[in-house]
Specification:
This protein is of the alpha+beta class. The chain contains 14 helices and 21 strands. The protein binds flavin-adenine dinucleotide (FAD). Keywords: FAD, Flavoprotein, Nucleotide-binding.
Length: 495
Amino acid sequence: MQKVRKVVIAGGGTAGWITAAALSRMLGPLLDITLVESDDIGTVGVGEATIPTHRTFHHLLGIDEREFMRATKATFKLGIAFENWGGIGDTYIHSFGQVGKSSWMGEFYNIWLAAREKGIGEDLDAYCFELQAAKHNKFYTDEKFNINYAYHLDASLYAKFLRAFSEEKGVKRVEGLIGGVEQDGETGFITALKLKSGDRIEGDFFVDCTGFRGLLIEQTLKSGFEDWAHWLPTDSALAVQTRSVGPALPYTRSIAHQSGWQWRIPLQHRVGNGLVFCSQYMQPDAAEEILRNNIEGELLGEPRLIRYKTGRRRKVWNKNCVALGLSSGFLEPLESTSIHLIQIGASRLVQQFPFDGVSEAIANHYNEQSLRELERIRDFIILHYKVTERDDSAFWRDRRDMDVPDSLAQRLDVFRENGLAYQATDDLFRVDSWLQVMMGQRMRPKGYHHMGHMITEDQMRRALGGLSSGIANTVAKMPTHQDFIERYCAIEAEA
Ligand code: FAD
C-alpha cells in the first residue's frame, strides 16, 4: 500500500477550509497539505447557521471565541423558532436546551404530562432555560455559567478566517481552475489534479470539497447517489442578504410558507435570508415574490437561485478520495446540520487517517459511520414535515400523508402510543430536540410513564413552580443578546 503524506484538498468553500484547518492543526507536521480553489467559480455563499458541536470543533482546534466572532461578524444562537409549521399561526422554539430535569427512569415531560392532567404547571417551554432566554432575546456566557449555544456566522468571512488559520499552519493554497483529474490506470486511484493553467498538483490522498459538482467523488470516481427527494422534495433556494433593522435575535427563524419555508439568520452586520421551496409545487418567480414580501431591511443584492438534490453519495470515501461538504450529499438546511457534518467528517478523517496506505476496510468503516449518522439527521428533518397539521396546500398535505423511513415511523409510533421519546444510537439530536419538535408541532402521546403519579399534587406544584420561576429569574437578570455581543466582542479589541 502506498504511504500517504501529500494531501490535496480540491475546493475552498466552508468544507475545504474546515478540512484544511482540521488536518493542519491536528496532523500538520506529518502531512504536506495543498488546497486548490477557483476565484472564477466561487463558493455557494450560504450556510451561516450552526449547532453547538461547532464550539466543540473550535475547542479542538484551539480557536479563540472572541477572535472568531469578531472576524466572522457572528452572533449567538440558542435554537430555531419554527413559525407556521404545526399549523398556520403556530410558533415554537427548538432550543439547544434541556427540557426540565430528567432522571434515569424517564424524561421530565412525563411528570409534566401528569401535572397538566391535574391542571398544574405552565407550558412545557417554561421549563427550558435556553428556550426562555431565546424567547426574551437574552444571552450570557462565561466559564461558570452553563448555557448551550451555537453561532450564526458570515460564511465568506468564516472561510477567510479558516484560510488564515490553515496557512499559518503550513497549508499551501493554489488559485486555479481544475480542468482534469488523473488516475492510476490499474487501481483507479487519483494521482493528480490538472489545472487549466497547465500545472499539475500531485497527491497521495484527495479530499473533494468542490461543492455540488463533486468533481472527484462523482465526475471522476462515479461513486453514485442515493436520492432522498421522495422524503425531502425541496430542490431550490433563493438567497439574499439584507441590512439589519434592529437588534440581532439569538435564534434562527424558520417560517413555513405555502410550498416551502424561509430562513432568517441574524448576524452582527446583516441578516441572511432565503426561501427553500419545491419546484414541483412552486416556480422561482412565485417564490421570489414570497421572499421579497417577507423580508425586512434594504436588500444587499438580488436574490440568487440555488438548485440542489437531496440525498447522499453512496460512497463518501472511495479509493483515495473522501468527499466533505456539498460534494458528499445534501440535506436541506432546516436544522443547520451541514457544517456540523463537515466538521465531524473532517475529525473522523483525522482519527482514521490512512498514513500507511488506503484499504477498502477503512473506507467501508468510514462510509458506514457516515451513513448511520446521516440517516438519523435525515429522519429528524423529515419529522418536521411529517407531523404538520397543515392542510392549506398540496405541498403540506403531501408531506403529512407521505410514507417515512421505517426508523422514523417506529419512533413516531412509540411516542404516539406510549409517550416514549428517545435518543437512539448515532443520533446527533438529543431526546430534548425530538421532544421539542414533536410537542411543538402538536403531537400529544396517548400514554406516558407514570413516574409523575408517585408524588403528591402539592409536591408537583412546588417542583414545577420552583423550576420555572428559577429559570424566569435567571433570564430576567441576563443582558440582551445585542448588548452582550457588543460588550463581548469589544473586550479583546481594546486589550
Ligand atoms: P462550496 O461553497 O460550493 O465550495 C466549493 C469550492 O470548490 C469553491 O471554493 C470552488 O471554487 C471550488 N471548486 C469547484 N469546482 C472547482 C474547479 N473546477 N476548480 C477549482 N475549484 C473548484 N449549512 C449549515 O450548516 N447551516 C446552514 O444554515 C446552511 N444553509 C444552507 C442553505 C442553502 C440554501 C444551501 C444550499 C446550503 C446550506 N448549508 C447550510 C450547507 C452549507 O452551505 C455547505 O455545507 C457549506 O457551505 C459547504 O459548502 P462546500 O464548501 O461543500 O461547497
